[in-house]
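To: structure desk
From: M.T.
Subject: fold request, one chain
Message: Could you run this one when you get a chance? Sequence is below, nothing fancy, just the single chain.
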Amino acid sequence: MGIFYYVKSIALSEDLPGVEEGGFESPQDFYNIADRGYVQNAYNCWIAACLYIFTLVLSGHQFYVNSRSSLSM
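Reply: Done. Structure tokens follow.
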């Protein structure tokens, strides 16, 4: 999902922080805030994906260690 925020997918625009308040003085202000929101959400998605991968690797390692220890009894 981070890649879609990185390429600034319009379908994800409703989840951008700071855009829903409104009150923009110019269209450029809106674009600047939207760009910052896209970048922030992209980084958050990449961090979450890395944490999921780390958890998967840790769980796989624990499964391997536990299955090896139960076979040696």
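Reply (cont.): Residues 13 and 42 are 12 Å apart (CA to CA). Let me know if you need anything else for the meeting.
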